[in-house]
Design goal:
28% of the residues lie in helices and 23% in strands. By secondary structure, the protein is an alpha+beta fold. It has one domain.
Length: 141
């Protein structure tokens, strides 16, 4: 990536932080480097803690970042209205069709975040019960 393109992206990121109070970063494995999460993907927010006094969010399931951004946006709207989400708890009022999701405390580049644990295809959220390819969400926790 050229230096000009990088500066343009950082300026756009700054505008998004200023306008919305938060941004999403997507880090994926490349041929030259691997994500710290060990899952091939690390989708996380910046700005939520500073803007809304709530931990930033993270998802490490290798799924479509647009889908995760949509889930993060729903959560952030709830946070803006005063909702506080807690590590270790399951919530059934975020995802459609009463699917539950769970938050766990995690670290992303030496900062504490709430990792969003998405249910498997059967709606299971606990590591011991969920389908194997969804268990990677517990890496590093």
């Amino acid at each position: 990536m050229s230096e000009d393109r990088f500066e343009e992206m950082m300026a756009q990121r700054g505008k998004m932080l200023e306008t919305h109070g938060w941004v999403v970063d997507v880090v994926s494995d490349t041929k030259d480097s691997k994500c710290a999460s060990g899952t091939g993907r690390d989708i996380h927010t910046h700005g939520i803690e500073e803007s809304f006094d709530h931990p930033d969010l993270q998802c490490v399931l290798p799924v479509d970042p647009k889908m995760v951004h949509g889930i993060f946006a729903i959560i952030v709207e709830m946070i803006k209205k005063g909702r506080k989400f807690e590590a270790g708890k399951c919530y059934s009022d975020i995802l459609p069709n009463k699917y539950k999701l769970r938050f766990l405390e995690a670290e992303e580049n030496d900062r504490k975040v709430l990792r969003v644990i998405l249910p498997d295809k059967e709606g299971k959220l606990h590591k011991e019960l969920m389908q194997e390819d969804f268990r990677i969400q517990f890496n590093g926790i």
